[in-house]
Amino acid sequence: MAKDERNLNDRQSAATKLAGVNLRLAYGPHSVVEGLDIALPARRFTALIGPNGSGKSTILRSLAGLMRPAGGTVLLDGRGIATLSTRALARQIGVLLQGPVAPEGLTVGDLVAQGRYPHRGLLSGWSPQDQAACDEALRLTGTGHLADRALDSLSGGQRQRAWIAMTLAQRSEVILLDEPTTYLDLEHQIELMNLIRTLVRDHGKTVVAVLHDINQAARYADHIVLLKAGRRVASGPPAQVISARAIEEVFQVRSMIIEDPVAGTPLCIPLAHESERDRRPSPQET
């Protein structure tokens, strides 16, 4: 076992599904993440939050095996993902990044069927298990009525749900989503968050999503990782992570944290950017 793997196994509990130890992530000579330790609990919904440029999407790509770390190790069930073949990794980790593209004219049904690729051999035919996985994915995302529609004929929100259906058809234990609520209106955002809850609670999935909405993350996620400039500022249950001090440190915004009257989770009410803290009204404003 590699040194990085031994160190992480010593530090993380058996409940950790996906993790990274001492991760360094870089684009050429430019480091985005340096010395990051991150542990994502099994069968829980984890939200990665932080300002633009905090490394959220880059971290997600490395956890998916789409970006090779310049240093450190990504582990799945305590095993380095670098030891797994692309197909083997895809059977265990499904990922949906921002701005996916598909061939012109591809139907929603055909797109969702692509999610079965990791489970099919070169000579294997379409099986009842493949069809059942696709049918379930279409049902869960409410896209069954769109199965025969061309993807490029849909609205942005419908396309996003179709891509999510493809990811679900993969039936991987871990699902990684990069800003999955992009292009979704409020109704479908709520539907998606409830779907993630269902996948975690009823299907035992481990879901990790990059989110921009702090209150959405606090209400729906079991575990939050708060990031700034490629480092982990805090991680844990929402009530432990979302505080006025942490929000000001990470986002440079003063806020009031109250209890969500519906969910009982932290609710962040922004007050002012820190640059406005000592601003006094000018004579013209008084």
UniProtKB/TrEMBL annotation:
Source species, domain of life: Bacteria
Q: What is this protein called?
A: ABC transporter
Q: Which Pfam families match?
A: ABC_tran
Family statement drawn from the similarity comment of this UniProt entry: Belongs to the ABC transporter superfamily.
Report the membrane topology from the UniProt record: Peripheral membrane protein
The record's listing under PANTHER family reads: IRON(3+)-HYDROXAMATE IMPORT ATP-BINDING PROTEIN FHUC (PTHR42771)
Q: Where in the cell is it found?
A: Cell membrane
Q: Tell whether Membrane is among the UniProt keywords.
A: yes
Which UniProt keywords are given for this protein, alphabetically ordered?
ATP-binding, Cell membrane, Ion transport, Iron, Iron transport, Membrane, Nucleotide-binding, Transport
- Give yes or no: UniProt keyword Transmembrane: no
Q: Where is it mainly found?
A: membrane
| ABC transporter domain ranges (all copies) | 18-254
